[in-house]
Structures are given as C-alpha cells and as structure tokens.
Amino acid sequence: MNLHQMLLARADNDQPIRVGLIGAGKFGTMFLSQVRHTPGIHLLCVADLSVPRAHAALGETGWPKEQTSPTTPAKALAGGGTFVTDDSEQLINAGGMEVVIEATGDPEAGIRHALACIERGRHIIMVNVEADVLAGPLLAEKAAQAGCVYSMAYGDQPALICEQVDWARASGFTVVSAGKGTLFMPEFHASTPDTVWDHYGLTPERAKKSGLNPKMFNSFLDGTKSGIEMAAVANATGLTPAPGGLTFPPCPADKLASTLIPEVDGGTLHHKGQVEVVSSRARSGKDLEGDLRWGVFVTFEAPSDYVKRCFSDYGLITDPSGRYSALWRPYHLIGLELGISVAMAALRGEPTGVSRNFVADVAATAKRDLKKGEVLDGEGGYTVWGRLMVAGDSLTLGTVPIGLAHGLALKGPIAKGQIITWSDVDTSAQNTSQALAVRREMEAWVTTKTPNPNATEAG
Known about the structure:
There is one protein chain. The protein is an alpha/beta fold. Among the domains are: 3-155 and 335-348, Rossmann fold (3-Layer(aba) Sandwich), CATH 3.40.50; 158-184 and 223-332, no CATH class. The protein is built from 18 helices and 15 strands. It has helices at residues 3-12, 26-35, 51-60, 73-79, 88-92, 107-120, 129-146, 157-170, 196-200, 204-209, 214-221, 224-237, 256-259, 305-313, 339-348, 391-397, 434-446, 453-456, and strands at residues 17-22, 41-47, 83-85, 99-102, 123-126, 150-152, 174-182, 274-279, 296-301, 324-329, 360-366, 375-377, 384-390, 406-410, 425-426. A six-stranded parallel sheet has the order 3-2-1-4-5-6, with helices on both faces. A four-stranded mixed sheet has the order 8-7-9-10. Strand 1 (17-22), helix 2 (26-35) and strand 2 form a beta-alpha-beta unit.
C-alpha cells in the first residue's frame, strides 16, 4: 500500500521506471493520460503501426510536442522525452527500458512481443487478453525462468477480479464465484458488425465519427470478450467454468450473495469455485436497477457459525442462510489504472494477476449455419463467437481457439452453435503463424506439467 511513496523515491533519485507502450488504441491512450501525472515513471517510447495515430493520442491526452520530439530512443532516455515509432522491436530493445505494455489486442502480435520482451529481460504487462488466453501460462513460465514479470493489466476486469479473489483467500474465505458484469441477452451471440450499433443505441455514422471499432464492440456484445476475460481469470485463479460455459444470469449487485452461489443452496452456479458473468438486463429485456454492468465481484462463504454472526453484526448482504456474502466493485477504469501494474512489476517484482495453469479455453463457435469454403473472420466478426469451456474438454475435442479462428476455410458445413474443431478447417493458411506454434507448444507443455495445487483449488 505504499506504491506512491516508492514511485516518489524513484523520482527523487532520478531513477524513474522506464516504460514503453505498444499500441495507442483506447486502452493505451487512457494510460497516456495518466502516466504524465505519475511521478517516478518515464514514458520512454510509444510504438504503433501508425505513427500519426500515436502522436494524435499523445496530443489528445495533453503531451507537449516538445516532449515527444526525440528522434531516437537514446535521445529520449538522455533528455527525459518520449520517442514515437512504428517499430515495436526498437521499443523493446531501447536502452534503459524496464517495463513494456502490450496493448495491441492482436494475439499474433502479442505473443511475438511477449517473447521478445522475455528474451530481452523486460517486464511485460499484457493488456492483450486475447494473447494471454491463447498461451498465457506458457508465456508466464518462460518469463519467470528469465527473471521477468509477466502480468495482467490492472484496470482491466481480469486483474481486478484476481485481486478480489486474492483478498478473499488471503482473508481465509472460500471463494464461491468470481467474475464481472456486462450487458447480455442470448440473441447477442448472433450479433455481427452490421447489427452491433443497434444494440448500443448508436447509428453507424455516429460510431464511425467517434472512432469506434465495430468488430471490437461486437466482441463485447456477443459474449466473446466475456469468455476471453473469464478464461484469463480461471487460468490465474484456478476457478473453473460451468460445463456449458457462461450462463450470464441477470443479477443486480445486491443480489450477488443469493444468486452467485450453488444451485443446491438456492443460487445459479453449477459448482463452488466457478467463474461467471452477470447480465445487467433481465431476459424480459428490462434493465436492472443497481446493476453491475461495469464492475467486478467475488462471492465467498463463511467458514463457521461465528463468521456468519460477524457477517450479520457488520451489515454484510448475505443469502437467506447468512452463509454466503459478496464483495463488488461497481466500476473499472481501464487504462487509467494501468500504472498500478507498471509499479508492481518494477518496484515489487510482482504481477497484478498472472496465468498459472491451463484451466479454461475459448472455442470458436458458429454464429449461424456456415457453408463449406467459408473463411472464419475471428473475434467480433460475422462467422464465430467465443464460447468459454474447460481446458481439458477443449484439448480433447481439438477445438479451434477464438484467437486463431481467422483466415481458416471450412472443409464442410457447420451448424449454428457448433464448436469448430481443427478437423473442420484447412490450416494451410496458418503454417507460418508464431501464435499457433506457441499454442501448440503450450498444449504439449501442459500435458507434462504438474499442476500447482494452490492455483487450482476451487476455494
């Protein structure tokens, strides 16, 4: 609880944490807005495929032009400025670099950048949850062996959920469930980039003017992003999905303690120790009062009658039995909070959440009846959405992970709702994919890895 004081000490000693940001999208831009107000951190480099876009993000968040004018990383290091480039390798290899933030959202790029950071000895903050779910446990293992921190991004919901799970367990509670809120209806699974703005109450023209990416926002809506984020939480905490994946029960915050508990105790969960996402909208279409659309939660169990009485004595909201309670956070601030991960990695050598075991996966699932020869277009697209599932089931079935479900032609027809397997697709288009190679390496690695019982226990 003294990160700010530690940052001040780095500033006073003229030894700020040197940070690089890869990807100047929404998440990265939000970080840019706050890092200029954070003592003890020097934004050494920003890399984006579009240098003008990176400069625009810096300008929008108040960075003076003279601050971002250095022409080389060395000049930025010497003068305290920020170098802007379209070359991510140049950023990773810059002298003095300590922490790299990967915020591209592209699984292929994310895995490539993570491996380069590990080879170069840089701590890496993986905003790119898509890459983490594809091969995070293996990347984390490689980073640990190299003496680097591989971390989830604080401010994003997976890291905040991991923090709540850690709080509960470190306090001696059994974690019953953990997850986040979102706006969801079953029909959203079929949403496409052409229909997404209707669900958000926006016109395509308004969305384009605001710079909103239809595929990205469609991933939020169709359940894919929720599946990806809960897979990351499962892999970090050992909590597991229900056999059928996420069920998105409608639930306001004050009903978490009576809803996100096992069915046998009057709730909706398949089992104790489950990841889940609650919907802010009832199946009738009515938005709930006191919803948790932007927040995160954990439900936990009293280990004794004495603790049950303590729950009552201190006004905790519980289920009717008084045995279960919940803690929630109504908001997450995305990239505005990302500096916490930077400070934790550089100052304490600790991650704000990290994938430990391959517990859950996200499988490409047909949005509609697909024809032979159709080409999958990946997350947030027209053909598939991502279904959360138990990792062992995914390996047994040979499912195509959502992070690799693009550019693959179908060998035959696929029915709506069917999980797509490697036997269903032509893989020749991905023969040179580093992400696929690393994924295969992870699959082989997990079959020989001894699970960490402290990471996989349900409680």
